[in-house]
């Protein structure tokens, strides 16, 4: 059943009359969602998700040839950890969800899942790998119904990843609920400890499971008020979609750290997704963002909106425009393509250099390189060719190959580079190890000079809002000057996008973005333990499994490691 086109969506939560505090006014709402209080029987959830059943797939890491197989990722980049999608009112909801997840595959390649609902039963299929590897025609046949939510995940390696694949599904005394989450809760550990002291049992290390427990113990009515009450206790970044027996609910944190948009198909089906590129693929028309602090409820009565809580000034993640999102997406109301093109133009204006050719580190540096080349009046060419057919693991020959991880993915074009003064545009430098290998690769192809231009300011601090970044001590810009970095990576000149110029380009919206990774000033301070996901990975060559430390690291130990790394 398609959702009604009638909607009470607010134009901005901060001043909307629909704002409420569920704990103070649990029975007061100013919109038309009917309140239903009868208890439901506990439905059987047909699920293969981590909470109800942990299933290992694939070969064990103890296979005899494991030493010759390396985890591969050729980019030394921050990682966006998740992408989410939700669909209501389409008979092919799960298949549309599957296609939307394809469009969001860049936001996570390690795990994927879809939950649908039919006849008050939630059906779930989750697995490890790419969307095309997890789902098949027979798997999608097990996901009936006209409502579905989906999730793609970037995660760590090993068993800790297998049990954290979303969406999660849980049963409680009034029914079942599924959830897919993009973001990171900075008070996760404190909430978990409080819940465990009161008898809650956790099956995963995911902060998303905390949300399910908070919903289950809430006494608020109707269901969406349980979500409101749960989210009032959360701190950090969360863009989430929930699925119940009869409702699809979307919610975004009060700061709006991570993106979440709403669209509609021609048949009236309502779609939520992390990026507009997912709407485009399934022919849904973009309507608007889910506002920071907003809860949107979609059911047979239509679309209703309520403000989660009076929210602060938005602090949307600027890295969505620098690196994470696809260029064809509109994120936080801005074209990602136009933002990156302007970043390149600023670099050409403020950090010019005599050159013969402009190239990009594909794929994320391409649009900024086009902007740089156009502004500088120099030809843009493909000096590096990226292989899109390299898997996440690769068997390395016994005789080691220098810069093996980078060479697997990037191949220099000698005809473009030989004897030339080359400007190389990349989106960011994290540890600097990959950049040094790229510079060496280009010089070995005969380049006369290599000038690096980076379309972001220097990254000096970790992100705690749903982005996988190393500890501060491993961030090269946190412990070296620009000149020291230039010497380390071996280029002839190096320039970053000045943060003041970045803010100037954003104009009046500049204060609505989060720059914590560039400044170390956090809109929401992390407390207790902070997440450590990817700081043991470097150019696809994984460190020892012991270094994962369960995916979490105490804050003081992280600082100690930063000191060691700087020594």
Automatic annotation (TrEMBL):
Glutamine amidotransferase type-2 domain location: 82-301
Listed Low complexity bias regions: 54-72
Pfam families the record matches: GATase_7, Pribosyltran
Molecular function via GO: amidophosphoribosyltransferase activity; iron-sulfur cluster binding
Chain segments carrying region Disordered: 54-75
Cofactors named for this entry: [4Fe-4S] cluster
Superkingdom: Eukaryota
Pathway annotation: Purine metabolism; IMP biosynthesis via de novo pathway; N(1)-(5-phospho-D-ribosyl)glycinamide from 5-phospho-alpha-D-ribose 1-diphosphate: step 1/2
Record-listed E.C. numbers: 2.4.2.14
Keyword Metal-binding recorded: yes
NCBIfam families in alphabetical order: purF (TIGR01134)
Listed PANTHER family: AMIDOPHOSPHORIBOSYLTRANSFERASE
UniProt record similarity statement: In the C-terminal section; belongs to the purine/pyrimidine phosphoribosyltransferase family.
Name of the protein in its database record: amidophosphoribosyltransferase
Organism: Salvia splendens
């Amino acid at each position: 059943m398609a959702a009604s086109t009638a909607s009470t969506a607010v134009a901005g939560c901060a001043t909307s009359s629909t704002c409420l505090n569920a704990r103070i006014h649990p029975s007061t709402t100013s919109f038309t969602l009917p309140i239903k209080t009868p208890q439901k029987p506990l439905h059987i959830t047909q699920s293969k998700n981590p909470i109800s059943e942990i299933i290992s797939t694939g070969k064990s890491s103890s296979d005899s040839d494991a030493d010759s197989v390396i985890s591969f990722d050729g980019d030394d980049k921050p990682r966006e950890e998740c992408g989410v999608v939700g669909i209501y009112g389409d008979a092919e909801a799960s298949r549309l969800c599957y296609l939307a997840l394809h469009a969001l595959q860049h936001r996570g390649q390690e795990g994927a899942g879809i939950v649908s609902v039919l006849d008050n039963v939630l059906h779930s299929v989750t697995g490890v790998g790419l969307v095309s590897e997890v789902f098949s025609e027979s798997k999608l046949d097990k996901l009936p119904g006209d409502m579905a939510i989906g999730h793609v995940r970037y995660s760590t390696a090993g068993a800790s990843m297998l049990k954290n694949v979303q969406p999660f599904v849980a049963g409680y005394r009034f029914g079942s609920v599924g959830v897919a989450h993009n973001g990171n809760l900075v008070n996760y550990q404190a909430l978990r400890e409080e819940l465990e002291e009161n008898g809650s049992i956790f099956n995963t290390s995911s902060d998303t499971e905390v949300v399910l427990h908070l919903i289950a113990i809430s006494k608020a009515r109707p269901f969406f008020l349980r979500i409101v009450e749960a989210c009032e206790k959360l701190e950090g970044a969360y863009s989430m979609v929930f699925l119940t027996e009869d409702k699809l609910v979307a919610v975004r944190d009060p700061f709006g750290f991570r993106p979440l948009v709403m669209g509609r198909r021609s048949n009236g089906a309502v779609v939520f997704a992390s990026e507009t590129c997912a709407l485009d693929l399934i022919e849904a028309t973009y309507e608007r963002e889910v506002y920071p602090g907003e809860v949107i409820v979609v059911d047979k009565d239509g679309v209703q909106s309520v403000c989660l809580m009076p929210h602060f000034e938005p602090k949307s993640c600027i890295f969505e425009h620098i690196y994470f999102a696809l260029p064809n997406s509109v994120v936080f109301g801005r074209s990602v393509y136009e933002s990156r093109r302007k970043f390149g133009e600023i670099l050409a204006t403020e950090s010019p250099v005599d050159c013969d050719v402009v190239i990009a580190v594909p794929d994320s540096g391409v649009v900024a390189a086009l902007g740089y080349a156009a502004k500088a009046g120099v030809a843009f060419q493909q000096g590096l060719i990226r292989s899109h057919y390299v898997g996440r693991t690769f068997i390395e020959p016994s005789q080691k190959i220098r810069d093996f991880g980078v060479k697997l993915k990037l191949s220099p074009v000698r005809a473009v580079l030989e004897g030339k003064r080359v400007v190389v545009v990349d989106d960011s430098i994290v540890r600097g190890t990959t950049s040094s290998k790229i510079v060496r690769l280009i010089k070995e192809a005969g380049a006369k000079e290599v000038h690096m231009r980076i379309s972001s300011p220097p990254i000096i601090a970790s992100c705690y809002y749903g982005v996988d970044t190393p500890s501060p001590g491993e961030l090269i810009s946190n412990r070296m000057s620009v000149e020291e970095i230039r010497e380390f990576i071996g280029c002839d000149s190096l320039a970053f996008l000045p943060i003041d110029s970045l803010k100037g380009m954003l104009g009046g919206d500049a204060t609505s973005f989060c720059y914590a990774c560039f400044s170390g000033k956090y809109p929401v301070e992390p407390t207790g333990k902070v997440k450590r996901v990817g700081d043991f990975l470097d150019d696809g060559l994984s460190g020892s499994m012991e270094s994962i430390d369960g995916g979490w690291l105490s804050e003081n130990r992280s600082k100690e490691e930063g000191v060691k790394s700087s020594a």
